[in-house]
Design brief:
This protein is mainly α. This is Secreted protein.
């Protein structure tokens, strides 16, 4: 009697375990899950590539500055190692600025009646 109960309980437990395992695997293989996994792996790869590219760019910049210093010493040129400030393009003119120049008031509206 106990032997049959033992094997019945063991069979039920094995069936529940197998069913749970199969259901988890099926959920992992749904299109949505596969797409999410692929997207996560693509993001991870992108972050790793970005980190390597940033490191490479910093190495190139350091080596470039060192080589420019070597060339400057060899040629007797002592230039300022700082790069010039980036130029800023003004998208909207500031009328309060003293250097502001009023443009002509000619209308360029093509939809205006002439």
């Amino acid at each position: 009697m106990f032997r049959r109960t033992f094997w019945f309980t063991t069979g039920v437990a094995a069936g529940v375990w197998a069913t749970t395992k199969v259901n988890r695997k099926l959920k992992q293989l749904t299109p949505e899950s596969l797409a999410a996994t692929a997207a996560n792996k693509a993001l991870e790869t992108g972050h790793r590539l970005k980190d390597k590219a940033v490191g490479f760019a910093l190495d190139v910049r350091d080596n470039m500055a060192r080589r420019e210093a070597e060339l400057g010493e060899a040629l007797g040129i002592h230039a300022d190692p700082e790069l010039p400030a980036p130029r800023r393009v003004v998208a909207i003119e500031n009328r309060n600025n003293p250097t502001y120049v009023e443009r002509s008031t000619y209308s360029y509206n093509r939809n205006e009646d002439h």
